[in-house]
Design a protein that fits this description.
Layout lengths: L9 H4 L12 E5 L2 E4 L27 E7 L2 E7 L8 E7 L2 E9 L11 E6 L21 H14 L11 E9 L6 H15 L9 E8 L2 E4 L3 H6 L2 E7 L4 E11 L1 H16 L2 H11 L13 H19 L6 H21 L3 H5 L1 H20 L14 E5 L7 E7 L2 E10 L5 E2 L8 E2 L1 E6 L16 H15 L11 E10 L4 H15 L9 E11 L6 E8 L3 H6 L2 E7 L4 E8 L6 H25 L13 E6 L2 H8 L4 H10 L2 E4 L3 E6 L2 H15 L8 E10 L2 E6 L3 E6 L20 E9 L5 E4 L11 H7 L1 H25 L3 H17 L9 H7 L4 H6 L3 H11 L4 E4 L6 E3 L28 E9 L3 E7 L2 E6 L13 E9 L5 E5 L2
Parallel strand pairs: 7-8, 18-19, 29-31, 36-38
Antiparallel strand pairs: 1-2, 3-4, 4-5, 5-6, 6-8, 9-10, 9-11, 11-12, 12-23, 13-14, 14-15, 15-19, 16-17, 20-21, 20-22, 22-23, 24-26, 24-32, 25-26, 27-28, 27-30, 28-29, 30-31, 32-33, 34-35, 34-37, 35-36, 37-38
C-alpha cells in the first residue's frame, strides 16, 4: 500500500533526507513534492509479507495560477499541468476559451547573424467539437488566419530579445477549446509572453496585448466576437510598461483624434497584463540561462568602419543614385573591404563583415537625417514621392489599375462572381464566409532576384490582409451589392510600401470595375529615425519620415502603415525594431500620415472619382435572374445535369440562390447565349410587347400553335403572319420552325396571342422573306434597342430613383398592357383537334386553357434580370412597343424603338392622362411617358398633338420625353 503526502501536512513536508532513499520507496514526484511510491517488482529487497499486488500510486501535478480581471472579463493564467518539458508553457483562459502557448530554444549554438524565431499558431477543429471536413479528416496546411495570428504574436515579442541572441526559438500556440465568444489571437499573444517569462530564455518582457472596440462612440475593452461585429473599430495594441510595441487596427473611417483616444485608453489596459505574469514567474519561473551572444568586438567594428565609412557616405550624399545603382555601389565597397581583410588575414572581420558594413550604413543614414534633415533620395522629411495613376490598364478585364509611387509599382485587377463564390472560412470564430478577397503577390522579379513561389507566404498574406481591411470600410453593403469580389495585386517593382500601393491601386480598380465605393482609399508608410541615450536607452532626438523607401525601412526604427479616406482611418499596422517607442511619438505620426494621404487622394481622384459602367461587349458580364423556386428546379434538372450542360455549351457559370440565378459570363455574347437557353428552358415573365423565341408545334387553317418561353403555348393567328395577305398558313410557317414572335395580348381564358408581323418592317415585307429570314431583322432591331438602352441605363436609373417616377412608369406599363385587347377568341391546339368530333361545350370543358391561364399567372412573377452596373442592379428587358393593333394607333410614318434616339424630336399624341404625367403615342405602337414638371402646363387633352423630345429610356425601355422648346 502506498500513502501520499498532502501539501498541507507539515510533518510529511519536513521528512529527513534518509527517508527519501529508494529502499524506503519514497520519492520526489513534482516540483519538490514528496510521496510514497508503490513497491516495485524489480527491487532487490524482498517483498513484505503483507504485500498483496502492485498498485499504481497517485501523481499530483502541482499547478500555479493567477487570476485577474480586465474589461469585465475574468482571465486565468495557469502553468504546471500541461507541456511540462517545454522551456515555458502557459494556458490562458477566458470563460470556456483556453489557449496553450509553449516556447522552446535550441540547445546548440548556430553560426548566424539573425534571430531564427518561429511562431506557429494553430486552430484545430476539436476545439469546437467538430470533425474536419477535409478528405483525410484532419487539419492540413496552415490557413490564412493561422498565419496572421502567428504574425500577431511574432511582431511584439521579437524586438525584446537581447541583441546578439541568435539561438533558434520556437513558439507554438494552440487553441484547446473555444466557445466562440472570444477571439483566441490576443489570448495567444499574452500566453506567449507569460511562457517566455517562465522559461530560461533571455527576454526583456513581459508585454500586454489588448483589443479595443467602439460601439456607438463608446470604447469597449476586450470585446466579444458579437460585439466586434457591431464595432466600427478593431484595435489590437501591444506594449511594455511605458512603450508601444505593435498596433494592428481595422476601422470604418475613424478620425485621427478618435484613434488617438483609443490608443490612450488601450495602453493602461494592456499594462494590467504585466503584474500577473511577473507574479507567476516568481512562483514557477526558471533561472535565465547564460547564452553566448554573437557580438562584434569594438576593435573589429572600428577597423571596418574606418575602411568603409567615407566611400559609403559618398554614395548616400549623391541623390542621383537609384535603388539598384546605389545597391551596386555599396556592394562594391563591401568587396573592397573584403579584399583588404583577406590580405591582412583577419578571420574575425571576414565573419562579421556583412553585418558590420550594414551597421556603418545605418549610422551614416541616420546621422544625416537627424542632423541635416536630408534623406537618401534628397527629399524633404514630409515629402511624398512622385505618383502615377492609371485606371482601366487592361480593358478586357472587369476592372484594373496601375499605381506607381516612386519606384514602387503595383498592378491591381478586379474579378466579380456570384455570392456562392465567396471564400469559405473554417475559423473557430467569426463569419463562415468572406465575400471580399484581396490577394497580394510579391514575385522575385520585382526586386530583381531569382526565387521560387511555393505555398502561402506569411509576408504576402499579411500585406494582402492589411490592404483588404483598408478597402472593406468603403465597399457597398451586401444587400446593395451581394456579389463576391476578388482583387489581385501584383507587385511589378518594389522600393517600399507595396502594401499601401496595393490599397491605392485596389481602390481605383474597384471603381473601374463599376463597384460603387463610398470614398477612395489611399495609404502610405511613415518611418522614424531616433537618437537614444546609451546609458538610459531613452530617445533624445527623432525625425518622422513620410513615405519611406525600402532602405529607410531597413535602416529606420519603425514601419507605420496607415490607410484611410479623407474622412478617417480604415486600417493601421505598426512594426518596430527597437524595444518600444513612446506613445506620444506614435500619435504624432498620425498627423504626418494624414497630410501625405490627402496628396495621394488628389492624384487618384483626378484619374477616376466614380464607379464606371462596363459598356464593352468583350468585358466579363455578371447578371442576376429572379425566378420562382419551381422554375429553378426545372433549370437545374436531375442531379444538376441540365445546369451543367448549359454551362458547358456557353462557357458561363451559373450559381443558384433562393429564388435567384447568378450568371457569370466572359463577354456579352456569352451572356446573351446563356440567357437565351435559360429562357427556352424555364421561360420568363410574359409581357405584352415582349419578344420571344418559339418553335411551331402544329399548323391549322386559321393559324399556328407555337411553344415558347419554357413550354408555354401561344397562337400565331393567320392575320399576324405578315403585313401582306396570307391565304394558307403553311405557305409561311411549318412545324418545327423556330420563330421570333411578339406577345400582343391574351384572351379572357388566358390564351396567349403572338404576332410575327409585329417584328417585321411593313414596307418590303413578303411571305417568303418571312419564312427564310424572320429572325434577322428582329435580332438587329433588338440588339440596337438594347444597345441604346444600355448607353443611357446608368444615367436614367438615377433619374428614376424617386417613388413618384416608379409609380408613373408602372401606370404607363399597365396602360400599354391594357390597350392590347384581344381581337379574336383563341383556343389551344388540342381543342381544335377535338372540335371536329366533339361539340363545342365538351371541347371547352376539357380544354387545358385554364391550366395555361394559371401557368401564365404563375410565370408573371418570375424573371427579372439584373446586369452589373455601378450599383450592381440593372434591369434587363427586351420589351418592344411595336404593335400596330393597339387602340388609337395612327401611323403616318414608320416608328420603332430602334429609330428613336436620345435628343430626337417627334410628334406625339396624348393617349392617356395620369396623375403624375402623360402616356404619349409616338406612332407605330411605340409608347412614351412625360412627367409633369413644376411650373409647366398640366391641362392637356386626350388626342392633342405635342412636339416632344426624347430625353432617356427607363429601366424597362420606355422612352422618357420632354416638351420641345
Amino acid at each position: 500500500m502506498a500513502s501520499v503526502a498532502r501539501r498541507a501536512n507539515p510533518l510529511v513536508s519536513n521528512l529527513p533526507h534518509i527517508l527519501t532513499w529508494p529502499k524506503f520507496g519514497f520519492r520526489t514526484i513534482c516540483s519538490g513534492r514528496l510521496g510514497f511510491a508503490p513497491y516495485s517488482s524489480t527491487s532487490t529487497s524482498p517483498a513484505p509479507a503483507d504485500y498483496d499486488a502492485p498498485v499504481a500510486g497517485t501523481k499530483f501535478l502541482e499547478t500555479f495560477t493567477e487570476e485577474f480581471e480586465i474589461g469585465s472579463r475574468l482571465i486565468t493564467l495557469e502553468t504546471g499541468k500541461l507541456a511540462r518539458f517545454a522551456n515555458g508553457a502557459v494556458v490562458l483562459g477566458i470563460e470556456e476559451t483556453k489557449v496553450l502557448s509553449t516556447v522552446c530554444s535550441a540547445k546548440s549554438d548556430g553560426v548566424r547573424d539573425f534571430l531564427p524565431l518561429t511562431v506557429d499558431y494553430q486552430e484545430k477543429q476539436f476545439a469546437q467539437g467538430v470533425i474536419p471536413t477535409t478528405f483525410m479528416r484532419r487539419e492540413g496546411a496552415p490557413k490564412e488566419r493561422e498565419l496572421l495570428c502567428g504574425r500577431l504574436i511574432d511582431r511584439p515579442i521579437r524586438p525584446l530579445f537581447p541583441p546578439g541572441f541568435y539561438h533558434e526559438v520556437q513558439v507554438m500556440a494552440s487553441v484547446l477549446s473555444s466557445d466562440g465568444k472570444q477571439d483566441p489571437d490576443v489570448m495567444a499573444a499574452n500566453a506567449t509572453s507569460a511562457a517566455l517569462m517562465l522559461s530560461d530564455i533571455p527576454w526583456n518582457g513581459p508585454i500586454g496585448v489588448i483589443r479595443i472596440g467602439r460601439i456607438c462612440g463608446q470604447f469597449i475593452v476586450n470585446p466579444s466576437v458579437d460585439e466586434l461585429s457591431l464595432s466600427d473599430l478593431n484595435l489590437v495594441y501591444a506594449c511594455t510598461k511605458d512603450k508601444t510595441l505593435m498596433i494592428d487596427a481595422q476601422a470604418r473611417e475613424i478620425s485621427e483624434k478618435d484613434f488617438e483616444a483609443a490608443l490612450r485608453l488601450a495602453h493602461p489596459e494592456a499594462v494590467k497584463y504585466l503584474d500577473p505574469q511577473i507574479r507567476l514567474a516568481e512562483k514557477a519561473g526558471k533561472l535565465k540561462k547564460e547564452y553566448r551572444l554573437s557580438m562584434v568586438s569594438e576593435k573589429t567594428m572600428e577597423k571596418i568602419r574606418n575602411l568603409s565609412e567615407a566611400p559609403i557616405e559618398a554614395v548616400f550624399t549623391d541623390p542621383k543614385y537609384g535603388k539598384f545603382e546605389r545597391g551596386e555601389a555599396l556592394d562594391k565597397i563591401t568587396q573592397d573591404v573584403r579584399r583588404t581583410l583577406e590580405e591582412e588575414c583577419d578571420e574575425e572581420g571576414l565573419k562579421v563583415l556583412s553585418k558590420t558594413v550594414d551597421t556603418v550604413r545605418k549610422e551614416i543614414v541616420r546621422r544625416r537625417i537627424i542632423s541635416e534633415g536630408i534623406r537618401v533620395d534628397g527629399r524633404r522629411l514630409d515629402e511624398v514621392r512622385p505618383i502615377f495613376c492609371e485606371a482601366g490598364t487592361l480593358p478586357a478585364l472587369r476592372g484594373s489599375s496601375l499605381f506607381s509611387r516612386g519606384d514602387t509599382q503595383v498592378l491591381c485587377t478586379v474579378t466579380k462572381g456570384a455570392p456562392e463564390e465567396a471564400q469559405r472560412l473554417d475559423s473557430l470564430v467569426g463569419p463562415p464566409t468572406k465575400r471580399f478577397m484581396l490577394h497580394y503577390s510579391f514575385p522575385p522579379f520585382c526586386i530583381n532576384e531569382v526565387g521560387k513561389r511555393v505555398g502561402l507566404n506569411r509576408r504576402e498574406v499579411g500585406h494582402g490582409t492589411l490592404a483588404e481591411k483598408a478597402l472593406l470600410a468603403v465597399l457597398p453593403t451586401e444587400d446593395v451589392f451581394s456579389y463576391a469580389i476578388r482583387v489581385n495585386s501584383e507587385v511589378m517593382s518594389s522600393d517600399g510600401s507595396t502594401s499601401m500601393a496595393t490599397v491605392c491601386g485596389g481602390s481605383m480598380a474597384l471603381m473601374d470595375a463599376g463597384i460603387p465605393l463610398k470614398e477612395h482609399v489611399a495609404g502610405l508608410s511613415v518611418g522614424l529615425v531616433s537618437e537614444t541615450d546609451p546609458s538610459t536607452g531613452e530617445i533624445k532626438d527623432y525625425r518622422i519620415l513620410t513615405d519611406i523607401l525600402g532602405l529607410e525601412d531597413h535602416l529606420g526604427d519603425m514601419d507605420f502603415k496607415i490607410a484611410g479616406t479623407r474622412n478617417g482611418i480604415t486600417s493601421i499596422q505598426l512594426d518596430i525594431k527597437p524595444a518600444g517607442i513612446p506613445l506620444d511619438i506614435i500619435c504624432e505620426c498620425l498627423e504626418a500620415a494624414l497630410k501625405g494621404r490627402l496628396q495621394i487622394l488628389d492624384h487618384m481622384e483626378r484619374e477616376i472619382n466614380a464607379a464606371r459602367c462596363q459598356d464593352d461587349r468583350n468585358s466579363p458580364r455578371l447578371a442576376t435572374l429572379k425566378y420562382s423556386n419551381d422554375a429553378i428546379r426545372r433549370l437545374i434538372g436531375p442531379l444538376g445535369a441540365l445546369k451543367r450542360k448549359i454551362e458547358e455549351e456557353t462557357g458561363a457559370r451559373i450559381s443558384v440562390g433562393d429564388g435567384i440565378l447568378y450568371i457569370n459570363a466572359k463577354n456579352q455574347a456569352a451572356m446573351e447565349k446563356v440567357q437565351e437557353k435559360i429562357e427556352l428552358t424555364v421561360g420568363r415573365e410574359i409581357e405584352v410587347g415582349g419578344i420571344y423565341k418559339g418553335i411551331v408545334t402544329s399548323v391549322k387553317e386559321y393559324g399556328a400553335f407555337v411553344e415558347f418561353n419554357g413550354g408555354q403555348q401561344g397562337l400565331l393567328h393567320i392575320s399576324e403572319l405578315s403585313h401582306e395577305p396570307v391565304t394558307r398558313v403553311s405557305d409561311v410557317v411549318s412545324v418545327g420552325q423556330q420563330l421570333s414572335l411578339m406577345c400582343i395580348g391574351q384572351d379572357v381564358r388566358g390564351n396567349i396571342k403572338l404576332s410575327l408581323k409585329a417584328t417585321l418592317w411593313r414596307k418590303g415585307s413578303k411571305a417568303d422573306n418571312v419564312v427564310r429570314g424572320s429572325e434577322a431583322p428582329l435580332k438587329q432591331e433588338a440588339d440596337n434597342c438594347a444597345k441604346s438602352v444600355e448607353e443611357e441605363r446608368i444615367e436614367q436609373e438615377k433619374r428614376d430613383s424617386s417613388e413618384e417616377d416608379e409609380q408613373l412608369e408602372n401606370q404607363i406599363d399597365t396602360a400599354i398592357f391594357s390597350s392590347a385587347s384581344p381581337a379574336v377568341h383563341i383556343r389551344s391546339a388540342a381543342e381544335c383537334d377535338q372540335g371536329e368530333e366533339k361539340p363545342m361545350e365538351s371541347l371547352r370543358s376539357s380544354s387545358p386553357a385554364s391550366r395555361n391561364s394559371k401557368k401564365l399567372k404563375k410565370e408573371r412573377s418570375n424573371a427579372k434580370v439584373v446586369s452589373d452596373n455601378e450599383s450592381g442592379d440593372d434591369s434587363y428587358s427586351t420589351r418592344s412597343q411595336e404593335n400596330e393593333n393597339d387602340v388609337g394607333a395612327k401611323i403616318e410614318a414608320p416608328m420603332s424603338a430602334r429609330k428613336l434616339k436620345i435628343g430626337m424630336e417627334v410628334t406625339a399624341k396624348v393617349l392617356q392622362i395620369r396623375a403624375r404625367g402623360l402616356v404619349l403615342d409616338l406612332g407605330g405602337g411605340v409608347r412614351g411617358m412625360y412627367r409633369f414638371e413644376t411650373g409647366v402646363q398640366t391641362d392637356f387633352v386626350v388626342g392633342e398633338e405635342l412636339q416632344v423630345k426624347c430625353q432617356s429610356f427607363s429601366t424597362k425601355g420606355i422612352p422618357v420625353l420632354s416638351l420641345a422648346e
